[in-house]
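Priority: medium. Attachment 1 of 2:
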């Protein structure tokens, strides 16, 4: 780069000297013969050519000498842009997290009949990634097998095993979970199990509805307190389709769960006020 710079400088100096000499030669002529006119034309052409070359070389040298500076500035702009994008993503995530925490706190405050332990989802497993997951709370926090797991949106599942500081939760998507349920507006009862539909999405089905049942689309289905296994009133899902089981002379209702099991980050464990109680007698979730 240094060699190129020196060489181009020498060229510019030589062309400038020639340019000045031609100007001086032209100025010393008071009268022009025919031959001098030709020389004048050539001189003017030469002057223009030298000026043009000089201008282009100056522009080229300016580009060469400023290239590294421009490249550095461009890299700095890219870095700042990446930092701004990261901050925007972090802000959006913190905003969503704060919104979830606010709704969860409101849900817990509405249901003061029970205590709640808020947990983070730290690992997923099972036959499917949404069949079960691990939480970061265990027996030391009152989390034992049989405890019901929810979010402010509705039912998630049930704790099936617990250590001192962690526990395993099986979700509504697990084939091991069956939930006593009722249709909110008609009080018709049955039980709900989850299943994976043809689109590999988790849905649920409510069984044992009478053939005369008035169940219809958009009906809300909640938990029913049978055997103190689940608190009464937890939202499970809403009806998206009604089927007839001619063999059993009953109706079944396909439900869309309120909780998206794929997106869980935090959950709450419902703890009876009497921590020694194994069931959930009494209060209703609102």
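Attachment 2 of 2:
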């Amino acid at each position: 780069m240094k060699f190129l710079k020196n060489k181009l400088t020498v060229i510019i100096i030589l062309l400038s000297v020639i340019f000045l000499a031609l100007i001086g030669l032209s100025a010393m002529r008071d009268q022009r013969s025919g031959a001098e006119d030709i020389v004048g034309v050539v001189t003017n052409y030469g002057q223009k050519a030298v000026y043009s070359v000089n201008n282009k070389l100056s522009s080229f040298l300016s580009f060469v000498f400023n290239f590294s500076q421009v490249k550095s500035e461009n890299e700095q702009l890219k870095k700042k842009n990446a930092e701004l994008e990261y901050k925007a993503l972090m802000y959006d995530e913190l905003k969503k997290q704060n919104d979830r925490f606010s709704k969860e706190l409101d849900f817990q405050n509405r249901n003061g009949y029970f205590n709640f332990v808020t947990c983070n989802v730290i690992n997923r497993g099972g036959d499917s990634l949404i069949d079960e997951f691990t939480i970061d709370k265990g027996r030391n926090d009152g989390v034992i097998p049989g405890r019901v797991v929810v979010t402010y949106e509705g039912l998630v599942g049930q704790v099936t095993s617990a250590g001192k500081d962690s526990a395993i939760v099986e979700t509504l998507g697990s084939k091991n979970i069956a939930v006593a349920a009722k249709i909110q507006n008609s009080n018709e009862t049955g039980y709900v199990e989850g299943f994976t539909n043809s689109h590999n999405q988790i849905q649920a089905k409510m069984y044992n509805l009478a053939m005369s049942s008035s169940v219809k689309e958009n009906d809300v289905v909640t938990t029913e307190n049978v055997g103190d296994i689940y608190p009464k009133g937890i939202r499970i899902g809403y009806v998206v389709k009604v089927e007839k089981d001619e063999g059993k002379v009953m109706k079944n209702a396909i439900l869309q769960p309120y909780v998206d099991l794929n997106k869980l980050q935090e959950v709450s464990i419902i703890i009876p006020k009497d921590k020694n109680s194994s069931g959930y007698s009494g209060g209703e979730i609102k």
